[in-house]
Specification:
The complex is a heterodimer. In chain A, 44% of the residues lie in helices and 21% in strands. Chain A has helices spanning 5-12, 60-72, 78-81, 86-92, 102-125; strands spanning 25-31, 36-45, 48-57. Chain A is globular and about 45 Å long. The mean pLDDT of chain A is 91. In chain B, a hairpin with a 2-residue loop joins β13 and β14 (328-330). Chain B has 2 domains: 5-12 and 256-379, Aspartate Aminotransferase, domain 1 (Alpha-Beta Complex), CATH 3.90.1150.10; 17-252, Aspartate Aminotransferase, domain 2. The model of chain B has no long low-confidence stretch (mean pLDDT 94). Chain B is an alpha/beta fold. The longest helix of chain B is centred in the last third of the chain and has 39 residues, at 239-277. The chains are: A alpha+beta, B alpha/beta.
């Protein structure tokens, strides 16, 4: 099997899949090559992510990467997510084959965009 | 994993045990070169002759009109390029849903100065014979239309197209790789001049295929060398493979009708079961004029590779209508030619049934696919 057990587990049982009511930040990224898309919703409490949910359209690894990342970002400062690297997402699913690296790119991109949106909104409110 | 179900018979099939048994002596006892005049050579030659006769009998043609090749791709290339090169210049007609072996051979011929018209298909994937008629030009040198499409299984009206080709005296090549040994038809009555067919789709070995060419058809061979295959295909024959191919054809001829009916019933059971449980699903291909074991469904808004992966984890082998490689994905050109909207085309999954498929297998697939599609849809923004 070309995918790790962790990846397959997230693919079969995605955590935090679906919409979020009144999120504090949302972000989307799309991988143009194949149309893979990830959308993240963040709930932020005292500057940290308290909940992350996602929707995604794409191949199995993209779904798994989004699910794993949605768990990984909880508890972290929102500012930190502005620099979230695809490698970190890839590590969360114990690696991706070369032809599926874009799964990590699109998930990291959507999370960075969601973090930026959350910070902008907070700035607007202040 | 307890239950394993192989539903990818249009890709390849397991070699029938009787085929293996018939092949084995040709690896050691009857290993000679069939072109050699001595006894060792004659033993190998007998194996070739028997296979050729079996296939000719099955097709209702003459044994000397059968050429053995290395695969369906070579046969298709021989048909398309062989006719083009024999003529030197001119125009060809093919459909938009041909196998890549025909399509890319035609595209390459275009770079060499030939012209090609690719006729459209309707929403079921079928060619309209009148479109073929309208595409004919004074310099049309060949018509190449597949008998059935491997992805959706739609069977083309080759008899009607053959009649047009005959009327205009244009050689007609049919890629019958997906129908040979599965659907009964009479090549002579269909106005066909060349037929490509393969062994490993019908429980024979890989690396061996056939090409039937009507006597008198002008054809340029693709490779040059010895006088094998009546100088139409140079190279020492794959004797064991050809012997196995002949046996596979003989076995298919015995069970073709009953197996066709059995698979048609199972194929329809799969569709009815999936349709009853999964919303937003459609059948791709012709509802009735379709290969007995081919069932191609589109799950709207779901990405097909995710379904293939989900089913793979349940021990089920099916194939995706679109494939994402290195970050670029193209929906199936066949489904696009049929006019399927992109959100349907991206969610196409093909199941192709075969000898080993049982009703229990089909029910297991129906039970398995519903929760997979439901979960994928829950995570997907399309339509949410």
């Amino acid at each position: 099997m070309r995918y790790s057990p962790t990846l397959l587990d997230h693919f079969l049982n995605p955590r935090n899949a679906g919409l979020m009511r009144e999120p504090d930040g949302t972000g989307v990224d799309e991988f143009e090559g194949c149309g893979d898309l990830a959308r993240f919703f963040l709930r932020v409490r005292e500057g940290r992510v308290s909940e992350a949910r996602f929707q995604t359209y794409g191949c199995g690894p993209t779904i798994a990467a989004a699910s794993a990342a949605s768990e990984k970002v909880v508890g972290r400062p929102v500012e930190e997510l502005l620099n979230l690297k695809p490698q970190e997402v890839e590590e969360a699913v114990d690696g991706l084959p070369d032809d599926r690296k874009h799964a990590a790119d699109v998930v990291a991109g959507a999370l960075r965009a969601a973090a930026l949106d959350a910070l902008r909104r907070r700035g607007g409110e202040a | 994993m307890s239950h394993r179900v192989y539903l990818d018979h249009n890709a390849s099939t397991p070699v029938h045990p009787e085929v293996v048994a018939e092949m084995l002596p040709y690896f050691d006892e009857r290993f000679g070169n069939p072109s050699s005049v001595h006894g060792f050579g004659r033993e190998a030659r007998e194996g070739l002759d028997t296979a050729r006769e079996r296939i000719a009998r099955f097709l209702g043609t003459r044994p000397e009109e059968i050429v053995f090749t290395s695969g369906g791709t070579e046969s298709d290339n021989l048909g398309v390029k062989g006719l083009a090169w024999a003529k030197g210049s001119g125009h060809l007609i093919a459909s938009r849903v041909e196998h890549h072996a025909v399509l890319r051979a035609c595209q390459w011929l275009e770079t060499q100065g030939f012209e090609v018209t690719y006729v459209a298909v309707d929403g079921h994937g079928a060619v309209d014979p009148d479109d073929v008629r309208r595409a004919i030009r004074p310099d049309t040198l060949a018509i190449s239309i597949m008998h059935a499409n491997s992805e959706v299984g739609t069977i083309q009206p080759v008899r009607a197209i053959g009649a047009i080709a005959r009327e205009r005296n244009i050689p007609f090549h049919v890629d019958a790789v997906q129908t040979f040994g599965k659907v009964a038809f009479d090549v002579s009555a269909c106005g066909i001049d060349m037929l490509s067919f393969s062994g490993h789709k019908i429980y024979g070995p890989k690396g061996v295929a056939g090409f039937w060419v009507r006597k008198g058809t002008r054809l340029q061979s693709l490779q040059h060398g010895g006088d094998h295959e009546r100088r139409r295909r140079a190279g020492t024959e794959n004797v064991a493979g050809i012997v196995g191919f002949g046996k596979a054809v003989e076995l298919r001829s015995r069970e073709l009708k009953a197996e066709g009916e059995r698979l048609t019933a199972l194929r329809d059971r799969l569709w009815e079961g999936v349709r009853a449980r999964v919303p937003d699903v459609r059948l791709n291909g012709h509802p009735t004029e379709r290969l007995p074991g081919t069932a191609n469904f589109s799950y709207r808004g779901v990405e097909s590779e995710s379904i293939v992966l989900g089913l793979d984890l349940k021990g089920i082998g099916v194939s995706a209508g679109s494939a994402c490689t290195a970050g670029s994905v193209e929906p199936s050109y066949v489904l696009v030619a049929m006019g399927l909207p992109i959100d349907w085309a991206m969610g196409a999954v093909r199941s192709s049934l075969g000898r080993s498929t049982t009703a229990e297998d089909i029910d297991y697939v129906i039970e398995s696919v519903e929760p997979i599609v439901r979960k994928l849809r829950a995570a997907m923004p399309v339509g949410a």
